[in-house]
């Protein structure tokens, strides 16, 4: 391979110029909407704080429209994910930097919200857990690292791997998708640029393009917001499809603190209209399981029967209620 000093004999060692490695990368980045410079904002630092805030707020307001343009593709990816998870597969996010942190955030919220096991929805970030708070040099540039991280999870064909990258060119995210697809897993590539390598590598390419950032290249802004909105959809709607909700109630919530214990009682109340005494009795009988408690109250069955009916219905409360009421 030609070195940077070979490319330009006058270049200072260790500082590639436009004809070397950095020049090639700069040329790539120059084609990306997320890296585009906005001359109309070149003097934003001269504006008042409120004026800057209004501009940012206006920029943020454009993101949902960018997501809306890709709703059919997002829905198809979610249906495919739910189908795999219903067979016992896992949802695995893989990304670097901000994208990786957003994946880890979404994954970490699933156990308390939907009572999933921590092994069911997983967030991988290039460089490992320490990269959540401190950048790990070079980690995002390694496809091999992504493959090794997935191998560590013993990837199966029932799993779904979502590669996340604002640029759509991050080697770690692309490597994760390529490796997962080769293993027969479902793959989704979420990027914020059109014609991305990440989308091309995935079975489901989701290119949500919110456009250039307020601060040139700062993809934690609109791109990060777009990614968060899509990840919210992927996890939330997948869990709805898996029966983790009853209407818009989080009936699989894990009551791990006082706030969530109070919320559990509120959910049972909303679903059943039962008295406080009935709610406490049902939750006590079902060891605090909200979904089971609702079935006890609405189905007028005991706790073991509620548990059995829910198991037969694969955790879908509506189906279990129908079964109880027709027997």
UniProtKB/TrEMBL annotation:
<dbReference type="Pfam" id="PF22645">
    <property type="entry name" value="GKRP_SIS_N"/>
</dbReference>
<comment type="function">
    <text>Specifically catalyzes the cleavage of the D-lactyl ether substituent of MurNAc 6-phosphate, producing GlcNAc 6-phosphate and D-lactate.</text>
</comment>
<comment type="pathway">
    <text>Amino-sugar metabolism; 1,6-anhydro-N-acetylmuramate degradation.</text>
</comment>
<feature type="active site">
    <location>
        <position position="140"/>
    </location>
</feature>
<dbReference type="GO" id="GO:0009254">
    <property type="term" value="P:peptidoglycan turnover"/>
</dbReference>
<dbReference type="GO" id="GO:0016803">
    <property type="term" value="F:ether hydrolase activity"/>
</dbReference>
<protein>
    <recommendedName>
        <fullName>N-acetylmuramic acid 6-phosphate etherase</fullName>
        <ecNumber>4.2.1.126</ecNumber>
    </recommendedName>
</protein>
<dbReference type="InterPro" id="IPR001347">
    <property type="entry name" value="SIS_dom"/>
</dbReference>
<dbReference type="GO" id="GO:0046348">
    <property type="term" value="P:amino sugar catabolic process"/>
</dbReference>
<dbReference type="InterPro" id="IPR005488">
    <property type="entry name" value="Etherase_MurQ"/>
</dbReference>
<dbReference type="InterPro" id="IPR046348">
    <property type="entry name" value="SIS_dom_sf"/>
</dbReference>
<dbReference type="InterPro" id="IPR005486">
    <property type="entry name" value="Glucokinase_regulatory_CS"/>
</dbReference>
<dbReference type="GO" id="GO:0016835">
    <property type="term" value="F:carbon-oxygen lyase activity"/>
</dbReference>
<keyword id="KW-0456">Lyase</keyword>
<comment type="similarity">
    <text>Belongs to the GCKR-like family. MurNAc-6-P etherase subfamily.</text>
</comment>
<dbReference type="GO" id="GO:0097367">
    <property type="term" value="F:carbohydrate derivative binding"/>
</dbReference>
<comment type="subunit">
    <text>Homodimer.</text>
</comment>
<feature type="domain" description="SIS">
    <location>
        <begin position="81"/>
        <end position="244"/>
    </location>
</feature>
<comment type="pathway">
    <text>Amino-sugar metabolism; N-acetylmuramate degradation.</text>
</comment>
<keyword id="KW-0119">Carbohydrate metabolism</keyword>
<feature type="active site" description="Proton donor">
    <location>
        <position position="109"/>
    </location>
</feature>
<feature type="region of interest" description="Disordered">
    <location>
        <begin position="1"/>
        <end position="22"/>
    </location>
</feature>
<dbReference type="InterPro" id="IPR040190">
    <property type="entry name" value="MURQ/GCKR"/>
</dbReference>
